[in-house]
Amino acid sequence: MALSTTLLMGVRSSLRSVVLRRGCYSTSAPWAATYRSSGRVHAMADTGIAVIGGGLGGLTFARVMQTKGLDVTIFEREPSRESRGQGGVLDLHPESGQWALIQAGLEAEYRSMARAEGQDMRIMDKHGNLLWDEVSPADLMERPEVDRPALRNLLIESLRPETIRWDHHVISIEPSGDDGPYEIRFANGATTRAAVVIGADGARSRVRPLVNDAEPTYAGVSFVEIGIPDAERLHIEAAKTVGRGSLFALGDNKGMIAQRNGDGRIRIYVAFRMQEGGFSELGIAFNESHDLIRKAIMNQFEGWAPEIIDLIRACDNSFVPRPLYALPVGISWPSMKTVTLLGDAAHLMSPFAGAGANLAMQDGAALALKLFDSTDSASAILAFEREMFERAEQEARQSEECLGMCISQDGATRFAQQMSYYQSGQ
Ligand SMILES: Cc1cc2nc3c(=O)[nH]c(=O)nc-3n(C[C@H](O)[C@H](O)[C@H](O)COP(=O)(O)OP(=O)(O)OC[C@H]3O[C@@H](n4cnc5c(N)ncnc54)[C@H](O)[C@@H]3O)c2cc1C
Fold first, then answer.
1. What is the mean pLDDT of the chain?
2. 89-93+115-147+219-325+410-423: which CATH architecture?
């Protein structure tokens, strides 16, 4: 029997006895991670389940594991929870992101921070014609928007102290036998030995090569992320153009996707269908002054309605290039007993179906529940992957189709037609 399989059986039976005795969660299963560091000397340590990456997927996994009394350690490369901006807003889908938060016991907290008005959506063509204008009633909380930083904080704060090892950038993972344990090395000089490895480390996963040799490929579209600060107060016209939720201004194989954030900022993804790394061919050079970058982006929208171009004019000095990548649609691999992937590490896709974070959270919760319900890690991973491959393939296909539809010559018309088709229930 594989080492990890034995461990998992151990934790299951010890957990059951703790639950029976105390009627509550165990605070620490007997095989809990023991990770020690003393000054600059990091001793080789043993970890039961090591999660690589503390994004929404890894955090949700850890939270659901802990609510079931199972131990887990997250190794995250960021130096601290504050060290990186965490992006804009998400709408959590009932069957995935919201379901995961219910499993995590955090539904009430999520509902209290979600915004119904963020569900409003507009689609505009390049001439400024509104082809779709959907206003959500205040009591419709089907897919409310939530700010990603708030959601991440909620998950981080729900974990036991010391669950996340910040500043642990994984640089290599070597199995010492067919099914582990795994020697994990970090950029800070630390090492650990883990029985089970969960790769939740996003697009450029270090864990993925253990199960699959696929690499993300360029999806044909790149964003420049820009933003308008304090729009309601300082840029009233821009705020009116965008409305309370999202605006899609599309056409000519490009567009702008603008979203209201909870902090008053309007976050805008300016999208171009272009060659990989081809910003300079569009005259956009990120080493130029902010004014020149802004002007170069505006030039790309020559002939568009003034209120759309004014969104670029109003943006501050943050210009972040974001080329989009995806793993092959339908990616899968033969199941392994002690290592698996979740979220973007498993099935990176373009954001056009709004599914990536939702799936990452669903994966995290689903895997934790499978581990809790199984007597060994191998059968849990097999059952989890079977379902994950299927749902990820559907979303990846939809995401590919949506990207093709939105960033096209007549993107606004096609997207609006699609919306009315959905609304009519055909
Ligand atoms: C512009 C844009 C807009 C999007 N909008 C939406 C949306 O509206 N709705 C939606 O559902 N999805 C959206 N997505 C997709 C979503 O952001 C991702 O699918 C989601 O963040 C994936 O979560 P994850 O936990 O799998 O990975 P990540 O969020 O990428 O987290 C991975 C974590 O692993 C850490 N890490 C990476 N490498 C290592 C290493 N070697 N060692 C240790 N730690 C490591 C990283 O620091 C990070 O914290 C969008 C994506 C983009 C690019």
1. 88
2. 2-Layer Sandwich (3.30)
Q: Which atom belonging to ligand 1 lies closest to the Cα atom of 204?
A: 38
**How far apart (Å, rounded) are the C-alpha atoms in residues 199 and 150?**
23
Examine the pLDDT at 396 and tell me if it is beyond 80: yes
Ligand 1 atom at minimal distance to the Cα of residue 93: 11
Give the tens place of pLDDT for each residue, 110-130.
999 988 777 889 999 999 999
Nearest residue by C-alpha to atom 52 in ligand 1: 351
Kindly list the domain boundaries of the chain, sorted by start residue: 3-86+150-216+335-403, 89-93+115-147+219-325+410-423
- E strand residue ranges, 55-109: 73-75, 89-91
CATH for 3-86+150-216+335-403?
Answer: 3.50.50.60
- In this structure, which residue's CA is closest to atom 19 in ligand 1? 356
- For residue range 82-101, what is the model confidence (pLDDT) as tens digits? 887 667 889 899 999 999 99
* pLDDT over 90 (residue 14): no
Q: For the chain, how many residues are written? A: 426
Same fold, 3-86+150-216+335-403 and 89-93+115-147+219-325+410-423: no
ipTM: 0.99
Question: Whose Cα sits closest to atom 38 in ligand 1?
Answer: 201
Please choose from 95, 152, 155, 344 the residue to mutate so as to test ligand 1's pocket, defined by most ligand atoms within 8 A of CB: 344
- Protein residues with CB under 6 Å of any ligand 1 atom: 52-58, 75-78, 90, 169-170, 200-202, 206, 223, 269, 322, 343-345, 351, 354-358, 360
Q: Residue 226 C-alpha to ligand 1 middle, in angstroms?
A: 19
DSSP secondary structure string for all residues of 173-234: EEESSBTB-EEEEETTS-EEEEEEEEE---TT-SSGGGT-----EEEEEEEEEEEETTHHHH
